Amino acid sequence: MKIKPILAVLMMVIMVLTACQSKQASQGDENDKASNSEQVKDKKNEQKADNQEGNKEEENIAESEKENDSKNENKESAKEESTAKKDEEPDQNGIVTISDPTAIDLVVNKQRKLPDGFEPPNLVEPNVPFSFDKWREKRQIREVAAGPLEELFKGAEKAGVDLVAVSGYRSYQRQETIYNYNVETKGLEHANKYSAKPGHSEHQTGLTMDVSSAGVSFNLVEDFRDTPEGDWLADHAHEYGFIIRYPKGDADITGYSYEPWHIRYVGKEMAKEIHEQQTTLEEFFGLYTEEKEKTNQ
User: Fold this and answer.
1) What is the span of the domain harbouring residue 130?
2) Domain with 147 in it: what CATH number?
3) One of 202, 229, 259, 282 is an active-site residue; which one?
4) How far apart are CA 77 and CA 271, in angstroms?
5) Which residue, among 284, 280, 167, has the nearest Cα to 220 in the 3D structure?
6) Strand locations in 65-137, DSSP E?
């Protein structure tokens, strides 16, 4: 009689254990399902993130290409819209009067003159050493070029070379005096080769500075190119927005003989292009002097 109650208790224990195992198995399945679901969700999120990152990278590349295209278009547009392209028709002597003499990209040469009575705006005296002490108008340069000129001189000093400024702005009247003196003392041919007629000088723009060094006694001579200062200037002037305006061997294009001392401010971007292309300002804008046109005929 005592066995029956014991059996009953055992049966109840077995049933409870069985129920617990079934519940644990069920929870395990649910946990596995939840874990798998989370893994799938994580993979989807990773793929989505990768896709978004890829799309963003493609958008950045496309935007960069668009920006570069825009820069190139603006560069070409700026070149086309330059002062050099907007001038009036030549007069009966083939001379063009520049329409905007204050633009830094203007081209002044024997065929292209500044308007009568033109005086550049905002002339200042740059903080650079000069080859003379007294104040003269040629100590001046336009404000837009003064800062870059000062930086150029600082760069030269850091490189261990000592530049001095010799001649900057030159008025129409001063240029007229110099040109007439050269005609009287050295003849018309020499004057036209080495000196500009009044109204045709870059010095009148206020964007030019002649420089020299002690190695050539502060003179403006071709030998300046062989000095450490002349060598540094040829290699680094463009980094500050200046070009060697009259390169060697290009007199038939520029109209003037080689002047390694004559630097002209055109801005860093244009100076860099002209330096890299080893070209002249005339060629950069597709302009030539009468001598070059005759040579090509």
Assistant:
1) 88-296
2) 3.30.1380.10
3) 259
4) 17
5) 167
6) 96-97, 112-113, 123-124
Read out DSSP for 130-195?
A: BS--S--GGG-EEHHHHHHHHHHHHHHHHTT---EEEE----HHHHHHHHHHHHHHH-HHHHHHHS
pLDDT in tens, 101-154: 999 999 999 999 999 999 999 999 999 999 999 999 999 999 999 999 999 999
**DSSP SS3 for 71:** helix
Structure tokens at 58: 């493609």
Q: Is residue 189 part of a domain?
A: yes
Q: What is the total count of domains within the chain? A: 1
What span, in angstroms and rounded, lies between the C-alpha atoms of 166 and 261? 9
296: left (phi over 0), alpha (psi -120 to 50) or beta: alpha
Q: How many CA atoms lie within 13 A of 159 on its CB side?
A: 18
Helix (H, G, I), strand (E, B) or coil at 207: coil
User: Does 125 map to a domain?
Assistant: yes
- Indicate the pTM of the whole model: 0.72
Give the pLDDT score at 192.
87
How far is 253 from 280, CA to CA, in rounded Å?
A: 8
Hunting for tokens 């409870």 — which residue is that?
16
Catalytic, 259? Answer yes
